[in-house]
Amino acid sequence: MRRNILKIALPKGSLQEATLGLLRRAGFAFAVGERSYNAICDDPEIEGKLIRAQEIARYVQDGLFDAGLTGLDWILETGAKVLEVCTLPYSKQVTRPVRWVLAVPENSRIRSAKDLEGKRIATELVNATRRYLHKHGVHAEVEFSWGATEAKPPDLADAIVEVTETGSSLRANKLRIVDTILESSPRLIANRASWSEGWKRRKIENLAMLLEAAITAEGKVGLKLNVRKKALAKVLKILPAITSPTISTLSDPKWVALETILDEATVKQIIPELRRAGAEGIIEYPLNKVIY
């Protein structure tokens, strides 16, 4: 009997470790050999392969994979006809979207898109850059860059369009950001035919739910504590207003147990105050997934 298998493409390169880490927190552990592109999943119904993020959307569109994780930038750049299942705000350094920016040397006279008329622009994001120029009514030469794009101005290009998370690499190369071309974050995408198959759709939906839950859990912790009923109001006042703790009775009718989820950054301030207010048996624990 043929097993149900979901084939998924995972990004090879800079986003690889962040992606595998997110999948691990979601409950899907992938083992990747040092020189292998196959990603062996602990879920026997999933087969993974590491592919350059730039190619994933096209391969998913063509049905070589049922699903994939890639950036919105490469979906738009390739024009792939895929289903965007969910947005996953993670990256290798920060959780906010990455930016594709137009950048020039610090001493360049280019201050806006209009100043690019007749200039040469190097980028890996050729189609999106051409659309940007067309929107501004500017004619410029856009050439594909195979890498080391930040090193090309001013000798090999007048400007570049490059991806950045923090801007630090651009500053290190004495480049100034003129404008943002596109903001992008990872997407879980699906092949349209695969999405129409009942089993595959449910498997992809489950994956999406658990990935989103893992992202929601980032920066949050669980907190358990016991408190006398007479001190309950005082303890509840210390907890952030957005929290709605679960309150359970204990064998001793004079005590109750509280359990809640908090931002990790606030816990170090709250725990001492809770203890002073009469809380006991305080336990902080990490979270892998949170589903509201």
Features:
9 helices; Alpha-Beta Plaits; 29% helix; 33% strand; D-Maltodextrin-Binding Protein, domain 2; seven-stranded mixed beta sheet
Structural features, described:
The chain has 292 residues and is α+β, with helices and mostly antiparallel strands. It has 3 domains: 6-93 and 186-217, Periplasmic binding protein-like II (D-Maltodextrin-Binding Protein, domain 2), CATH 3.40.190.10; 98-184, D-Maltodextrin-Binding Protein, domain 2 (3-Layer(aba) Sandwich), CATH 3.40.190.10; 220-286, Alpha-Beta Plaits. It is built from 9 helices and 16 strands. The chain has a 7-stranded mixed β-sheet, sandwiched between helices. Strand 3 and strand 4 (46-52) form a beta hairpin. Helix 1 crosses helix 7. The radius of gyration is 25 Å and the shape is globular. The model has no long low-confidence stretch (mean pLDDT 93).
CATH superfamily of the largest domain: Periplasmic binding protein-like II
Q: Briefly, what CATH class of the largest domain? A: Alpha Beta
In percent terms, what proportion of residues is strand? 25-35%
In total, the number of domains comes to: 3
Q: What strand line-up does the widest sheet have?
A: 2-3-4-1-5-12-6
Q: What do the pLDDT scores average to? A: 93
Shape: globular
What is the overall number of helices? 9
Q: Give the H and E element order.
A: EHEEEHEHEEEHEEHEEHHEHEEHE
Query: How many E-type strands?
Result: 16
Which range best describes the helical content: under 10%, 10-25%, 25-40%, 40-55%, 55-70% or over 70%?
Answer: 25-40%
User: Any idea what the radius of gyration is?
Assistant: 25 Å
For this structure, the quaternary state is: single chain
Low-confidence stretches: none
CATH topology of the largest domain: D-Maltodextrin-Binding Protein, domain 2
Distance between the termini: 38 Å
What structural category arises from helix and sheet content?
alpha+beta
Query: What's the CATH architecture name of the largest domain?
Result: 3-Layer(aba) Sandwich
Largest sheet: 7 strands, mixed
